[in-house]
Amino acid sequence: MRRPARAAGRLAAGAGLAAALLLPTAAPALAAAPARVPAADGAKGQKLPGMPSAFDPDATEVTCTPASREKAKKQDWSRQRLDLDRLHRHGTGAGVTVALIGTGVAPGAAGLDGRVTAQGEGGDDCVGHGTFLAGLIAGSGGDTPRLAGVAPGAEILGLRGTDRRGRATSALVAAALRQATAAGAEVIAVAVALPDRDAELTDAVAAARRAGAVVVAAATPDLTRAGTDEIPSHAYWPAAEAGVLSVADMLPSGARPDGSLPTTGIDLAAPGAGVVSGGPRGDGHYLGGGASVAAAYAAGAAAVVRAAHPGDRPDAVVRRLTATAYPADIPQLDPYAAVTAVLDDPGTPAGAERAAAPVTVRDTSAADHVTGRALLFVLTGTAGVLAVLWAAFVLPRARARRWRPAGANRTAGD
Cis bond leading into 405, ω under 30°? Predict the structure, then answer.
């Protein structure tokens, strides 16, 4: 009878030891957060025409960008990176008007569902770039819902800040800013960047901010030629104006594209290469990139934040976008976090402290205390089980040896 009892005791002891080893590690594992998997370039392999940001200013004739005959077959990397499918379960920017200052926006463009109004020449988008950006801000995706913009419930006010070829001037951008302010736009996206500061433009930006608009601007002009390595760092306007959210383009790796124009004072980076959107003619798709694309994504995020947090002032919206950005050399836009995070003080204005502004993590001290007590209980209970099992295994053997150390009987019998 002893051998079965001993075997059972050894089996129970082994089970108890396994439980003691596994239980302390199992409890903390329940709280582990899932890892974020880097998104792949979803546009790779898709043969789509490129969307220009401007035409050659020296060309003798202007031919508008033709309708694309190609359609994207899958969601591109930029929408995966921004987690738009999950964002749209929390907000779509409904009720917010985004004024887009660029080459104009075609009111009847596919995927914008009649949510575009245009002033003056703003409805004539020969280049097509403005309509492309409008799709990133507020497009529904049409028959491809996964190609929707950041804020598919927002309204677009199309304004021309360029001539018909896409060449911007300070006077045109300033005039468009004043039109956006007069129309009561809650978010103003400026898709162009000018090399020189202009007093009229500065005044127009200040007036827009006083009226309560969040002003988002491309940190640099979109590249029109290669070989920018020798260009020194330079500030561009209106992105460099005080209170304007300056946005640069990034690759799937998070780095800026090769040959990007160097500049300072960038607040955010957002996807700006191999991005898919529609145009002013037809229902086909194009590929685009540049800081203007990144600024459009940030403007869409601002619209969703404004709709989700209607009481936040413009500086608080900007701070929310920067404080919740994914940490990197240039913080990377995270619209989902901007909408859902709880900031330490939503009323604190943005400014010099933007980059260091912390996100308040939910107070889990009570839960941690309960978890600690539960873990202590498990460990104490496990120790008790091991003690009982040890006694059940060791004491009978000691009693059989008449409480003498192991090997004593063997010595006596030699």
Answer: no
Query: Which token pair is 40?
Result: 């792949």
Burial label, 81 (beta-carbon count in 10 A; 0-12, 13-18, 19+): buried
User: Count of residues for the chain?
Assistant: 414
In angstroms, the CA 296 to CA 201 distance is 20
**Tally of CB atoms within 10 A around 142:** 18
**Dihedral sign, Cα of residue 181, residue 182, residue 185, residue 188:** negative
Q: In the chain, what are the domain boundaries?
A: 2-31+364-413, 77-340
- pLDDT band at 393, cuts 50/70/90? low
Give residue-wise pLDDT tens across range 152-211: 999 999 999 999 999 999 999 999 999 999 999 999 999 999 999 999 999 999 999 999
Radius of gyration, CA atoms only, the chain? 31
pLDDT digits (tens, 9 = 90+) for 289-344: 999 999 999 999 999 999 999 999 999 999 999 999 999 999 999 999 999 999 87
Which pLDDT does position 16 carry in this prediction? 42
Rounded to the nearest 10 degrees, how much is the dihedral formed by the CA atoms of 134, 137, 139, 141?
120
Helices (H), 309-405: 314-323, 335-340, 365-400
**What pairs with residue 288 in β-bridges?**
275
Alpha carbon separation from 30 to 34, 218, 366, 374 (Å, rounded): 11, 43, 17, 13
Fold of 77-340: Rossmann fold (3.40.50)
**Nearest residue to 344 (alpha-carbon basis) of 355, 334, 356, 359:** 359
